[in-house]
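Quick one - inputs below.
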Amino acid sequence: DGGITQSPKYLFRKEGQNVTLSCEQNLNHDAMYWYRQDPGQGLRLIYYSQIVNDFQKGDIAEGYSVSREKKESFPLTVTSAQKNPTAFYLCASMSGLLNTGELFFGEGSRLTVL
Amino acid sequence: AQSVSQHNHHVILSEAASLELGCNYSYGGTVNLFWYVQYPGQHLQLLLKYFSGDPLVKGIKGFEAEFIKSKFSFNLRKPSVQWSDTAEYFCAVLNGPGGYNKLIFGAGTRLAVHP
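Output:
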């Protein structure tokens, strides 16, 4: 089945540590996205990538970094510079060719900083 | 910067009541509009979308939304809700100023339907 796989589902980290969240898709989609979901704030865009080796900052990119070395993969690193990293992180993809605007989401990764 | 406002953060209804969730967006140009739904424990999924044409859009599970350009609104409606509609609903807009395909989401409305 085609879809988006995020791992790990739950992650605990100590303050001062970097952590990388994995996102893999087998939908052959060009565009990939990282959102952060917090209660009462909806989904806020962290980073997005339209094609391999290219990515753009979203609305809340500070303290995060990404790479897009392969079409299928778009990992997100939450660095120690992110002041409030505890959140639910959602990865999504969209077909650039069809330009339907429909995002396909993964199940999410819940990060807790202790 | 483009923004999306959802007026109701929490809505509680009884089964068979009618539903209307408000959504307003800030961009005045051509926009593509969406409603996504997140059922408890499930992925976010597309409920319906508006690109052009008939401003009254029908989606899955009996939902519909009306695009009113003059009011910058895209309200979601359902004539009679069911317990299974309990979920969080997000309005989103695609392609505001600056190009690129990115969706901007509202804060969400959490709907609870009581039997």
